[in-house]
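User: Predict Ecto-NOX disulfide-thiol exchanger 1's structure from this.
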Amino acid sequence: MAAAADGLGSIAIDTTQLNMSVTDPTAWATAMNNLGMVPVGLAGQQLVTDSICVPGFDPSLSMMTGITPINPMIPGMGLVPPPPPTDVPVVKEIIHCKSCTLFPPNPNLPPPSTRERPPGCKTVFVGGLPENATEEIIQEVFEQCGDITAIRKSKKNFCHIRFAEEFMVDKAIYLSGYRMRLGSSTDKKDSGRLHVDFAQARDDFYEWECKQRMLAREERHRRKMEEDRLRPPSPPAIMHYSEHEAALLAEKLKDDSKFSEAITVLLTWIERGEVNRRSANQFYSMVQSANSHVRRLMNEKAAHEQEMEQAKESFKNALTGILTQFEQIVAVFNASTRQKAWDHFSKAQRKNIDIWRKHSEELRNAHSEQLMGIRREEEMEMSDDDSGDNPSKKLRVDDSALAAQAYALKEENDSLRWQLDAYRNEVELLKQEKGQLFRTEESLTKDQQLQFLQQTMQGMQQQLLSIQEELNNKKSELEQAKEEQTHTQAMLKVLQEQEINVLTVALVNQDREKTSEKRSPGLKSEKEALLIGIISTFLHVHPFGANIEYLWSYMQQLDSRISANEIEMLLMRLPRMFKQEFTGVGATLEKRWKFCAFEGIKTV
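Assistant:
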């Protein structure tokens, strides 16, 4: 309810009908007297804050609920008038309807409480309705908050109202605390204090879930489109091998600009297993074409290395020039710090010159270390070259023509060696095929024997498995029989104990009856006769008997000086009127006295 109290500024159906302000004490007292209530003093304080209907109204709410954000304070939206200026305090005022009047609550009282708002709530609970309120009057009051889809009214002065949109619920919540009076009647059945709260309805929750699922689908579609947009393009499809495609690929392998694309296709074909006897020569020619690019690549590498050396040399020269200029700058700063020039500078100028000098020296030292590192690397490379070159064993060949001729001879030698390897492989394949065709009968008999042995082993394994299953079943049956035997033994022990207890109780009763018959003297006094009458009446009411403690507690209410021993001795003296029985087994064994005088008369 606090959210509603922080919500709407003022509610009115027709502002021309408002002739009373809540801040007017006289008008408030008159309204409360008409309702039969004692007027309370008003302070005229502000009731609502700047937020509307929902605390901290968030325009991005539609991102979660899928509902277009609508500000309930828009003019012309039902009960809500245009928002007042911020410097004017907003108060609740009396609302006049055709069939009833709504009086605002006391602003000094705390705002009504509400439950937690369910997700997608479009239904409100309205309690405290007047007994004579009809469904038409309720619709007249609450239809100003928005379109009503359903009203469910109960006989116990409450109802449930379902609106078309969620923001309409906030307007209805704002009416909580208002006192509703039908017409001008002062009867209690025609007035009541409204309590409006959020209601949890399955239809609202189902619609909310549908909207959430729709938003989730949209979000998944958006993410998928974004992933598809950011996904790198797929590589071009590799065509299938054919003689025509192989001829085209051979031409592409000879072209330097198309070599990278053609070598990828060649690698894919070889990995797919397209090389066979028929296509081996064609693939060999393509591999040889790929090998011919090695010389080109080596030349390109040498050219790039030369460019790199030139770049290093130019970088070293530029770095030397920069270091020379740094030395000159540092010399200028050192000359400025001498006494002839230093005394003529101010303190701030001296400080700046000192800072600049230190910074320049640091940069000079860093550049000099970098230049020295480059020179050390060059010296190490030169030393490696000197150690690797042995003039006594190796002679440098400066003629490039001889080197190219040697490289060509090496390539030709490699190609011949590869051809020889291919012929050897073909011969081995032919030998293997002939060996498979002329396989001897001995190998066939050996295979049959191995198959027979494998079948016998499988049969023996199946027999072992069946025997193990039977053994497990017999073990389980033996365990069940043992459990049943232990259970029957326990039952026999319990029955034997019960028989022994029954026999002992019967013997004790017989002995006591005999002793009581021998010892049963007559009554000694009138008090004993009175006690016997009371005890017999008490035990006659208890047909299942009563123990001596229960009987003594009852008799002690009549005579506080009597003891349990006296009562027990009296009962034992009259065995024809009272008898003692034992009930229960073991720890639950209990003695009870019963009235048996009528049984004795019948037997006589």
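Confidence is low (pLDDT under 50) at residues 1-25, 31-81, 391-398.
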